[in-house]
Amino acid sequence: MLNLTKVQVKEEEVLHNLIQFYIYEFSKYIPTIRMEENGAYKPFNLQKYWDENNFHAYFIKLENELIGFTLVESATESEPNTIEEFFIMAKHSGNGYGKEIAKKLFHMFPGDWFITQIENNKPAHAFWYGLIKEITNDRFSERFQEGMYIQEFNTKQVCNLQ
Questions:
Q1: Are residues 55 and 72 in contact, defined by beta-carbon separation less than 8 angstroms?
Q2: pLDDT of 113-157, one tens digit each?
Q3: Which residues pair with 58 in a beta bridge?
Q4: Could you tell me which residues come within 8 angstroms of residue 48 by beta carbon, excluding any fewer than 6 positions away?
């Protein structure tokens, strides 16, 4: 069973540990990412996920095994939903887990969405473009701006999330 579980403040260290793998994987797309002198990557500031209502941190679990995480900013009156970070461990990639989790997120936060990928991350662009094209029946917009692919769509109006 694949599921999302809300990260609790007391689990922040576990999330930071997973983020180290994410940054490691991401470093192949951004060569300027460097390890700190302590042998770890600079940790993310996660405070907003504990303090602000529209920021959400989730563990992605397969049965009871941690296989990834996602950081989501839910919509406000003036801003759409956004996936800030999304990560599935390499050993679990290609099994459809990312697709299933993304669809769960779209159900949890219906409405307008804004998804971005950096130009160099071709696998991420292929994943998000294909998934969004599928669930919206090709009713979304995509543009390339300042080194980023950006997809915009609405899950309330057009999505096929089975």
A1: yes
A2: 999 999 999 999 999 999 999 999 999 999 999 999 999 999 986
A3: 6, 70
A4: 55
